[in-house]
Amino acid sequence: MESNRRKFISQSFASIAGIATTAMIPSQLFGQSLHNTSRPEEIILPPNKPLGNKESIRFSVIGLNHGHIYGMVDSLINGGGIMVAVFAKEPELLQQFTKRYPNVKIAKSEKEIIEDNSIQLVASAAIPIERAPIGVRVMKSGKDYMTDKPGILTLEQFTEVKNVQKETKRIYSIVYSERLGNPASVKAGELVSAGAIGKVVQTIGLGPHRMRPESRPDWFFDPNKAGGILCDIGSHQCDQFLFYTNSKQADVNFSQIGNFNNSEVPKYQDFGDMSVRSSHATGYIRIDWFTPDGLDTWGDGRTFILGTEGYIEMRKYIDIAGREGGNHLFLVNQKETKYFDCSNIYMPYGQQLVHDVVHRTETAMSQDHCFLATELALTAQKMAHKLNV
Fold it and tell me: Is 32 helix (H, G, I), strand (E, B) or coil?
């Protein structure tokens, strides 16, 4: 009898506790598991228009050593630029380039382009160690300069480039293409500027790449010619941290580099990570050359932007086991969860740079921002702890 009475009292207290707990659960959660999620609203963004009337400039190319030059040239042409001439030391690279752009003139030397006063801008994807010296010569000739990243390889080059840019007042633009050349990145910038996730407090940038060593030239494996992994693809992530957090100053907290899987080239670095901070935001960056052949693209690049009122995730190049293609953006805030297909978004960098050349403005990227992103990458590279692998 006493046993039954204790059981009844125990069950009663359990019921009261259950009722009290239930009262604290929002009513909208009844009827669904706390772990269930609904599919977000899907928005396929329509094509947006270029920015007003396009200006026109004459530009030329010096150096074709990285395939990024094709995207750079296309952005200038789409932005209103007219390509005049190209110079490269390698006949095989010239042959590929002129096949795609058959009307371009082949210059006999770099000097021919440098001394042509009708040319307003020079674009370059030369071997990385050569990019800054080319840029110095270009700026001293009175022309603006657009270079693939890494646009500067050493702190000594950095000092010289900054001094010459200040003296000449020419544009030294480094193409951080993981932001400037990606539609999802452009849309993310619009959402952040509109306050969609409140104040941005952190970014996380993941930049995995596929190596395919048989397709790489010898200079690719030499940090003295190509820069280390943080100097090179780390500069993309430094640019994004500064841009999305609207940081005008920043420091490197820590950085690490390692060679985990390429012992035949001991100086090469196939892994790197680093942490940065400004006065109001932090950033974590991880980059590597370990993208497996089983992935349908060169890297599963992702960027996470954390705000006080929500967050954004970009799956730039692939959504594994998800939606087809690239340019995926996910937005979660206090009001909604949305998925944006950003494939049709117009990327304005080329048109903005052409406008800046004509009007001496900074609509594509401020010079201070361009240099600070590279300075962070160079600093991280120099101070990086070498992992014992």
Answer: coil
